[in-house]
Amino acid sequence: MTTRQIKVYQDLMGENDRWAQQTRELLAKHQVEMVNLIGSPGCGKTALLERLADRQGQDLCFAVLEGDIETINDAQRLARKNIVVSQLLTKGSCHLEAKLVHYALRDLPLAELDLVIVENVGNLVCPAEFDIGEHRKIAMLSVTEGEDKPLKYPLLFREARAAVVSKIDLLPHLTFDLDACVANIRRINSEIPLFQLSSTSGAGVTEFIDWLCTVPSSAEQ
Ligand SMILES: Nc1nc2c(ncn2[C@@H]2O[C@H](COP(=O)(O)OP(=O)(O)OP(=O)(O)O)[C@@H](O)[C@H]2O)c(=O)[nH]1
Ligand SMILES: [Mg+2]
After folding, report:
1. If 0-12 CB within 10 Å is exposed, 13-18 middle and 19+ buried, where does residue 118 land?
2. pLDDT in tens, 72-94
3. Residue identifier of the C-alpha nearest atom 14 of ligand 1
4. What per-residue confidence (pLDDT) applies to 11?
5. Which of 104, 118, 161, 191 has the least C-beta neighbours within 10 A?
6. Which CATH architecture has domain 41-134?
7. 139-215 architecture in CATH?
8. Residue 159 CB less than 6 A away from ligand 1
């Protein structure tokens, strides 16, 4: 009998998952919660984080890891609001990987923080597939994108622990069907809390931040 060589290809995400696990251990050690904010380009992720600056130091001590392919624009916007922020550049990749997040996290003053928010690269697909060690993902969609998006990009909405529909101040100018959007999110994930807000007018922002502040600590999970 001849012996044949068998090639074995392992899960490409194996290394990523190991870094994600190390991140979870680091967060647990410091009792810091980490959320992964995911949404399409321009849906208003950074604008919402700018709004969070008002609560910094009151009932929330947080830092942000800003994910982008290029530029430090978003980190500069948050730094202007006095938010502790680091910029993570993927230089071409459409999502953040766990190793980069882990290195950036290690440089944050974790002992002083309750929460780290990662703004992932603007994209409804790839970031949902990569575990970066977060405790929860938040799915964000703006009203200019079409109410069918939760059905077209279901993985993110299935995995998310909350969904945000943003830019509701624009509704009077659009044909966007908010009720249909909510129903579509519910078809994918019937349980998750759903926030409708506008970072421009401030409508609905407090409810979302209140939810962020009351998330259980990682130690309790
Ligand atoms: N009308 C309106 N415009 C908004 C709102 N939130 C954000 N914008 C605008 O939408 C554009 C994109 O906002 P960003 O906060 O940069 O969006 P982002 O999701 O961080 O974008 P990327 O990081 O590039 O993916 C900017 O011109 C914002 O001023 C909102 O609630 N209402
Ligand atoms: Mg941004």
Report:
1. buried
2. 999 999 999 999 999 999 999 99
3. 44
4. 66
5. 191
6. 3-Layer(aba) Sandwich (3.40)
7. 3-Layer(aba) Sandwich (3.40)
8. no
